[in-house]
Structure formats: C-alpha cells, structure tokens
Amino acid sequence: MNVTTGLFYVFSTVLLFAAFRVITARNPVQAVLFLVLTFFQAAMIWMLLKAEFLSIVLVLVYVGAVMVLFLFVVMMMDVNVESLRHGFWKHFPFAAVVGVVIALEMAGVTMGFHTPEGTAPLVSEPAVSNTKELGKVLFTQYVYPLEVAAAILLVAMIAAIALTLRARKDSKHVSAGVQVRAKAKDRMVVLKMEATKPAAEPAPEAAPEAKA
Q1: What single DSSP character describes residue 140?
Q2: Which helix (H) or strand (E) holds 151?
Q3: Domain range for 155
Q4: Which of the residues 48, 90, 182, 198 has an alpha carbon 20 to 30 A from that of 207?
Q5: Are residues 18 and 68 in the same domain?
Q6: What distance in Å separates the CA atoms of residue 31 and residue 179, rounded to the nearest whole number?
Q7: Nearest partner of 16 among 8, 26, 28, judged by Cα
Q8: Are residues 152 and 52 in the same domain?
Q9: 100, 144: one domain
C-alpha cells in the first residue's frame, strides 16, 4: 500500500465519522462544525485525485459561504451558548487533535508524494490544466444541462424570496411614485387664524359688607 492509498483511507475514515456525527449530534452548532469537517475531508480526496480546482471550489463555496450562512442561521436560533462554554476545556484536547489531523492531511497532500524512480505514475499528467478541461466539458458537452440547472436555481431563489416575503402591518411603506408626484400644497396646509386679542381683565371683587 502506497502513501496515496493510505491517505485515502485516512480521509475516508474521518469523512464517514464526521458525516455520522452530523446526524447524531444533539447540538446544532456541533452538527454544522462536523459538516465543515466532512467538506474538508472530501476536498482532500479531490486533491488526491488531482482535481485541485474542484477541491478549492468545495472549500471556498461550501465551507466559506454556505456553512457560514448555516452558522448564522443556527446562532440566530434559541441556543444556550453559555452552557456550551462550560465544557470548552473538557473538549479542547479532542478539538486540538482534530485540528492537528487536518493540518497534517493538508501538509501531506500539498507537499506531494512522488513515485519512486523506475515506476510509472498512476495518473498521467494532462497537457493542460484540469480547470480548462472542466470548462470545455461544461460549456460544450453539458451546456444545456448547465443552463437548465441555472434556471432551476434562479426559480428556486425567486420562489424562496416570494414565500418568505410578508407584508408587515407595523412597517410604514411609502410608494416612490407617490413621493415623486407630491406637491407643496399637498404637504402643507395654511390655516387662517384670528388675530390674538388681549385677555379680559378680571372683574373686581365685591367689597365685604360692614359689620353691624
């Protein structure tokens, strides 16, 4: 068994474990973090298959964007974060081990393991980059499925906005067309008021009757 096969088994084992923990974790924040670990392991497997572009896209799109959005949504839920911090140092060794494993995996893949001299490489190096070849396949052979997928995603995005859009009764909505057509006489009303008059003097009090 060579180094590439060994790394594949390591990545696959961690990936399966993290995927299992995604559906068994009771805490939603921990489930999202395990999903991030799953995506990292899948990216490492793509790297072993010489698909660097797909590996980087998986990390940037899913880990860097989608998972951050999931974390924001989860953190907006009613999750008692203070109770989670009590066991920070208790789970710190396990978290440190996971971080070291990820770092060693990335170092092992990025540093590269060359085949010994005299043996043929397992994968022949292409004349051009796999990114260019992937672009050619997507925009030539699979151009129609790509356009259909883009249309479906657009419809799904519009439908999600339409389903979540609700008219709030407490919001003060003003039409921009009404504001543009407004005139000064519509905004200000001049009232005619009588001139101020001096206050009337109070009537003198009656003198008290003299005692008999």
Answers
A1: I
A2: helix 143-164
A3: 127-163
A4: 198
A5: yes
A6: 49
A7: 8
A8: no
A9: no
Q: Which residue from 207, 197, 3, 209 is spatially nearest to 105, judged by alpha carbons?
A: 3
Task: Quote the number of domains for the chain.
Answer: 2
Query: To the nearest 10°, the Cα dihedral for 163, 169, 172, 178?
Result: 70
Q: Are 83 and 34 in contact (CB under 8 A)?
A: no
Same domain, 108 and 13: yes
What are the tokens at 128?
Answer: 């051009």
| Tokens (6 digits) for 169 | 């009764």
Question: Which burial class, exposed, middle or buried, applies to 193 when counting CB atoms under 10 A from its CB (0-12, 13-18, 19+)?
Answer: exposed
Residues 26 and 100 in one domain: yes
Per-residue pLDDT tens for 138-177? 888 888 988 998 899 899 888 877 877 766 666 677 777 7
Residue 201's pLDDT is 76
CA-wise closest residue to 53 among 150, 149, 138, 132: 132
Orientation of helix 3-24 relative to helix 28-48, angle to 10°:
160
At residue 101's C-alpha, the angle toward residues 5 and 23, to 5°, is: 90
Average pLDDT value for residue range 8-21: 88
Asked if 141 contacts 133 with a C-beta cutoff of 8 angstroms, the reply is: no
Residues 27-41, mean pLDDT to the nearest whole number = 85
